[in-house]
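Still learning folds. Look over my entry:

…
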Amino acid sequence: MLRPAPKFLVWLSALLAMVAIVMLVMGYRAEVGPLVIGSLASFALFCMRYALLKSYAFTVWVFAFVAASMFYPQAFMTWAGYDPKNLIVPLIQIIMFGMGTTLSLADFGRVLILPWPVLVGWVLQFSVMPTVGFTLAKLFRFEPEVAAGVVLIGSVPGGVASNVITYLARGNVALSVTMTACSTLAAPLMTPLMMQLLAAQYVKISFLKMMMDICNMTIVPIVAGLVAHYILYGRRPVCRRADVLGSMTFAAALLAILVGLWGGAYLGPVRSGLVVGMVMLAIVALAKLVVDILLHRPGNWMDKALPVVSMAGICLIIAIITARSAADLVRVGPLLIVAAMCQNGLGYTLGYWGARLLRLAERDCRTVAIEVGMQNGGMASALAMDTLHSARAALAPAIFGPWMNISGSILASWWRRKPVKETRTIADFGLRIAD
């Protein structure tokens, strides 16, 4: 239950915004940075505590970080000689580990129970969005690296936020979770394939390298997250024994050290994914040992912590990318925003009507539309920076991510006011069987 949002935050946000506007009119452009950042941060804090605006808090935080990186780009360029760009892949790995903790083998088993809706969504996911991205890149005549980024955001799998939006839209959450999991597992093959077919004319694409990078970035951490899921939520008594949790903590930490120090020769392409996965497993096991066993305070603490970590990670990634492409963003930003809105909107529209054409139930059509329209912007950003080595290619994912959260929340609110008649669909039956 949310506590009432402190009203002074929204008044502070409005006051800082008005002062910033006055200073801009007076010509003090260089001095308004702290006011703009403070206004956005205050409003984001207010949204986090206000039920009607909570779904927009992440987007406002993104704007706050973007403002900070635009006004003070050097703050995100180097930290005591360390390039924060190197944090992008580990942050994505932590986020994907968090996704893994929300999954179980039952989520993948539902494919056998409801294969048709999953297949429809999967085909639309990897056909509609890459094609729309390619078409928009041609239509807007973006420069090669920016165009590659537009294709890239269309070629990655669905994002984790789609599961929440599906719930708010009265869609089929079980189908949404299964579709996200399946499209993510298919990403090491499908994303490089789509990029090779549609974006090779813009930038050099190494199919094998991109495939291994996606495995390292997503598959390995997700598998570690699946293990963590059973540590956190397993009903067997062994999952609640202090000696077992202690042993898991020690073993995972030791394995992370061994892989980090000596795994390069044998596990090079996926070494960092294994290290992050093992470190996160050790943290989860240790946290459960301390919180559940020693402090006797069991609960959904991990469910509360991981969304905050994911939100902070994505905000930092976008700020790092923006700082490196501030001039490009000013130059092509408006066109990229329009392209992102078109790509996202066409994903919803073609996903929904494609599902309707193939005779899926209304709840499933809504789910497919959301899954197709909402992409894994974090993965696309990391691939642009780490695999394509292009901050310009990362601009489209950085813009698409915040916008899809705004549009998804609006779409969910509209669909929520249009409830569908509850019926026993195949997907509902699958959820009960899996549970």
